[in-house]
Amino acid sequence: MKMSATLVIQSHRVPLPCAWLQSCLDSVASWARVRGYDYRFVDDRIFDLLEPELADKLQGQAVIASDLARLRSLQQGLVEGYTCVIWCDADFLIFNADDFVLPEADFALGREVWVQPGAQGKLRSYVKVHNAFLMFRQGNHLLDFYTDTARRLLLLNQGSMSPQFIGPKLLTALHNIASFPVMETAAMLSPAVMYDLLAGAGDALELFHRKSPVIPAGANLSSSLTVREGLTDAHMESLIQLLLSRGALNTAFNER
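User: That's the sequence. What structure does it adopt?
Assistant: Structure tokens below.
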């Protein structure tokens, strides 16, 4: 079979802990197929890409280990000869495939507009970048630098580490200095925004709209927070169907 120029990679442990994750995986695989991209799903064997010293150090830190392993898998894809490699988290849903179009840049990160209650319950928004979507082309100058920086920080660290240590925290710090290319349509939805989408309206959704530069065409659904924030599997299934079938974000943006 002839190899495509572009490879899309996703990973998760199997069996999946939530049935709704399969809908997310299917949406990315379908988008890749329509675009003519190769698609690769990797289970926990992705962690075999980590060097033993770091694999040992990151035991019990699955999020951090995944953040490094995805970079190794993307590097591997470029070594295999792909001209472009893409990472999407397993809980990343593409709900408007026509508008989910890769930028011409050598690399791109996802856009995070995170809305949550602050002091006294007042909503606050934080505009950052995320690594639930990553794209790198041959000859880009970021992937190797980012991977090496993340690796060195992990080796040097002797204390506790936030799960976002080498993911959104490091990427946002670098982005704030260097202003990296961002795929603005690759968003992230916080639980507050997801609740408002399910309700059809709300202050969190309105603030998300105001701070988002474009209408998202895909989004990370924050699976690590759903149970803690009271979003059940039924909620998530309803949200996914809402995004896929009714264009909830498109409707809300057009009405603002």
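The radius of gyration is 18 Å.
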